[in-house]
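Colleagues,

For the teaching module next term, I've prepared a clean inverse folding example: a structure given as tokens, and then the sequence designed for it. I'd like students to try predicting residues themselves before seeing the answer, so please don't circulate the second half yet.
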């Protein structure tokens, strides 16, 4: 467990929680009760970590993780569509965050008097919700 937590950057308690809610399949155990994490388990944990960083709720990850582990994503077009939409949302978030970084950089360069910085209006409600 400690090694897996170290490899993935996910705390041990969180890994146990992921097992408890069936986000991560139960892993094999040694005779002494210690969990045995295989490469596929570590890969799944890393994927969970990346998806979590994108703001995806744990419940939304479950179907995608199941397909990733058990099947061919081409057999699940609705999940592929969901991941494409989520990716687009992430790209929009990156763009908005880059605008914020650029604005802060400009403020640092010019002091507090920067009135001509172009700020793109947000029209996509999902992007606005993602920035909260």
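(Answer key — instructors only)
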């Amino acid at each position: 467990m400690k090694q897996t937590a170290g490899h993935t950057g996910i705390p041990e308690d969180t890994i146990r929680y992921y097992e408890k809610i069936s986000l991560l399949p139960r892993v094999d155990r040694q005779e002494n009760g210690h969990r045995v994490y295989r490469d596929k388990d570590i890969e799944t944990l890393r994927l969970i970590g990346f998806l979590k960083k994108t703001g995806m709720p744990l419940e939304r990850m479950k179907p995608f993780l199941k397909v990733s582990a058990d099947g061919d994503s081409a057999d699940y077009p609705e999940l592929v569509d969901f991941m494409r939409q989520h990716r687009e949302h992430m790209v929009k978030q990156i763009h908005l965050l880059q605008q914020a970084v650029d604005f802060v950089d400009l403020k640092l360069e010019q002091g507090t008097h920067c009135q001509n910085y172009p700020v793109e209006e947000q029209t996509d409600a999902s992007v606005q919700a993602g920035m909260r």
